[in-house]
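note to self: dont lose this again. the chain is below, predicted strucutre after it. 106 aa total, dont forget to put it in the shared folder this time
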Amino acid sequence: MNSAQLKDMVKGWFVGGFEPTAFSTEACEVGVKAYKAGDNEAAHYHKVATEITLVLSGTVVMRDQEFAEGDIVVLEPGDVTAFKAITDAVTVVVKVPGALNDKYVV
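---
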């Protein structure tokens, strides 16, 4: 058995091929991301990974569309998205496969 604390992970990422991690694997990456209203991330895309985002709470904008609690957004390799938290928000993000250095800012 292994245990960890989310607060000890980098930017909420707790599964993947990086350190620290609660579970090391190259198969996928999983993170829980907390945002304050107004937080944003620059437009980016992945060449290898599919990125799946579950909006656990709050309201966010991705690809110029608004998403709220319970919405799931699947971005295929090459899909460009920026991110903005409209309200305080929490997301769960899964990237398949795990692909370090696969984030390309536009």
